[in-house]
Amino acid sequence: MVFWLRKNVAEKAGDEPVAEKVANEAEGFYRSGKMHCAEAVLAAVKNEFLPEAGDELVHLASGFGGGSGAGCICGAVAGGTMAIGLVVKDRKEAAALTKELHHWFKEQYRVTCCKALTANGKKRCVEFTASTAGKVAEMLQQRK
User: Fold this and answer.
1) Closest to 137 (Cα-Cα) out of 21, 9, 38
2) pTM above the 0.70 mark?
3) What is the DSSP letter of 10?
4) How far, rounded to the nearest angstrom, does the alpha carbon of residue 70 sit from its chain's CA centroid?
């Protein structure tokens, strides 16, 4: 998925869907080098669904990049999980959406393990970040 390249086209049209807007923002955060995958997903979702929440809460995701330093869970998935918890106040609903996110990610990329996803380098991390942020936004928008 190349959201970055489509961003200008959608902006000119003025009708960028929410999921694509969030995906583009997450991708931009990631590409800036100022945020890693988990931070970028959390920040982009927060900005769309809970903009009044302070930007400092994005620091909660700082330890989740690169598979939480151990290479286990993909940081984009961890950031998406945190974003779901931030927006959805019902624990059971948040758990169900998190399960749906993990299932979707595995369908798309086969695994959620950062080590497996980045075995050949981190060049696809921007894709994982953007697509996960977009999926979380889509899921959250559908629940409204």
Assistant:
1) 21
2) yes
3) H
4) 19
pLDDT at residue 80 greater than cutoff 60? yes
The band of 14, judged by pLDDT with boundaries at 50, 70 and 90, is low
Give the tens place of pLDDT for each residue, 107-130: 999 999 999 999 999 999 999 999
Scanning the chain, the segments in alpha helix (DSSP H) are 3-13, 18-32, 37-49, 65-66, 75-87, 91-109, 114-117, 125-142
Neighbouring CB atoms inside 10 A of 126's CB total: 21
List the structure tokens of 60.
């909660």
What is the rounded distance in angstroms from the CA atom of residue 38 to the CA atom of residue 81? 9
- How far is CA 20 from each of CA 57, 70, 73, 90, 100, rounded to the nearest angstrom? 23, 30, 24, 25, 19
The amino acid sitting at 118 is T
Task: Return d(Cα 44, Cα 22) in angstroms, integer.
Answer: 5
